[in-house]
Amino acid sequence: MEIFLSTLVQNVLNALQWGSFYSLIALGYCLVYGVLQLINFAHGDIFMVGAYIAYFVATLFLGVQFGLIPPGMPGWMVLALAVPLTMILTAMVGVTLERVAYRPLRRKGAHRLYVVITALMCGLILEHANLALLGASRRRFPHLIEERLWDFGFFSVTNLKVMVILAALLVFIGLRLIVTRTRIGMAMRAISWDRFAIPLMGIPVDSVIIFTFILGSSIAGLGGLLFAMSYPVLEPYMGALIGWKAFIAAVVGGIGSIRGAYVGGFLLGFVEIMVVAIFPSTFRDLISFTILLMILSYKPTGLFGMARTTKI
Q1: Staple partner for 154: which of 6, 14, 229, 267, CB 3.0–4.6 Å?
Q2: Where does the sequence pass through the membrane (predicted)?
Q3: 79-98 burial, b for 16+ CB within 10 Å, e for fewer?
Q4: Rounded Cα distance, 172 and 69, in Å
């Protein structure tokens, strides 16, 4: 019984960590869709770009990559500098995509299908630009903090795992407060309901959209940094599969719902970890997606999504 309890708690902790990554990416999908009704399929690759930005920022401050700064800066200090810089630079990538790819189509009134295809192309451009500029060889993320194992008798947990879980929780709480308690959040919710009437009320739509991309992309950058610290091997296609899975998690939770994206990410993480704990790892995606398909068959709008009427 003790062995079973220990294994169960350990798997729950692993699921919380893995679900945190899905939730951080799913929240970005949720923000953009909630405001623009756009599924930003390039978001998983923005997550990948954030991991690479974190790598270069960390190696720069450690003095390993360029030698511009004397080596020996403490890892915790490098991490404290890397987090805001990674989020800011990744947000700049997201805003650039919005200005270059999405805004021209939006202003020309292009059909939503063309915008989705453009998002897919943007993701491929990010992947292959990374491949062309940095090469196909994998890069190892440097150790920024000493990983400590906290043993509680029948289970153990690392400080890095706790940091990832707390970061996802704080991001969720922060987003909820921004969307529900601030003027810009009120404008985001208003645009999601009627984007064409908002300019008549004097609200700058483009500014709200840019802020939405800043939020979503910076969260993806934070997720990329935390993922790189947890699994320190970077490659150009690392964001593709996890991005698609996070999108599915957002749909299962209820696309457009912050609470749904957060819960959906953890739900997918729990399902995957528990499947691997019981069945061979080759069954992970098969059983996980089957369970999620059953949930959507029972509740097509997702766990926290709401059916919306459209005027014709």
Answers
A1: 6
A2: 20-39, 46-69, 75-101, 113-134, 154-179, 208-231, 237-255, 262-280, 286-307
A3: beebbebbbebbbbbbbebb
A4: 35
pLDDT at residue 69 in the model = 46
Q: Give dist(CA 123, CA 67) in Å, integer.
A: 32
- Beta-bridged to residue 234, according to DSSP, are 139
CA-nearest of 260, 272, 262, 270 to 296 is 260
What is the pLDDT, as a whole number, of residue 145? 84
**What span, in angstroms and rounded, lies between the C-alpha atoms of 61 and 69?**
6
Residues of the chain with pLDDT under 50: 65-69, 311-312
In the chain the domains, ranked by start, together with CATH numbers, are 2-298 (1.10.3470)
Residue 126: per-residue pLDDT: 94
Which of 93, 241, 267, 66 shows the shortest CA–CA distance to 231?
A: 241
**5-28 core/surface letters (b: 16 or more CB in 10 A; e: else):** eeeeebbebbbbbbbbbbbbbbbb
Q: What is d(CA 275, CA 259) in angstroms, rounded to the nearest whole number?
A: 24
Q: What is the dihedral of CA 23, 24, 25, 30, to 10 degrees?
A: 70
